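Your task
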Amino acid sequence: MIGSVFRFCSVVFPNIDKKTHAVVSYFRTIPNVKRRRGRALSSFALRLIALICMCVDHAGLALFPSVGAFRCIGRPAFPLYCFLLVQGFRHTRDLRAYARRLLLLACVSEIPFDLLIFGQFSSAMEQNVVFALLLGLMALYAAKALAARPLPCALAVLALMLLAMAAQVSYGWLGVALCLAYAYAGDSKKCQALFTVLLTLLYAFTLLLSGVARTWVAVSLCAALSVIPIALYNGRPGPRGKALTFFFYTAYPLHLCALALIRVMRIIPPYFWG
């Protein structure tokens, strides 16, 4: 309403001074601000939500393994990290440095991951989720580099999916698929939500076919809840800096170490173990 009044005045009084023109220009942006009012989450907020969900998930695994609610809360973390990886891929200035950081983080986190999940220093049964994100990043690079060559591009993506499954990486092929889906969706909130739900359902179906307990299949469906924070993403980075970057990178291995120590040392009461 106010913007309309100022626009009307600018037409009626063409000799209006520059300051008033500046005010008119400001109020012309009001409708755009209103359209974006519902999107309140920055990249920083999404990272924080994903980190909290992941910590709750792993805390439930270590302390309350018989309580499924903790695992349900943790399911949206992985799609959120895949979504954030795509945003990082789009804006990074040094893709090689980005990949090196992920590789280093994956290697550093593997021992505490194995200690928490399997109670031993090394296990080939499953690799931590950062390897899945690294393969997703490689798939994004392959899709971009081979965009003009559909067949080699498809073969490269298929090879990365097969590698994820053969190496027993957490979530298997889903990491590569989610990263590519979010990259294809771009800024379309409808496509982002559609791909999240469809891939979550497909992943749950593959778990069911592989003989996984139906309870865990039902828990895996909670990953679709990630559509809510993704829909509220406003495209802005939010607070950032070297200290925050260091915090988010180190939070994963550090919380794994803490929970693994609790589980291996049996610091908690025995009845927590189910």
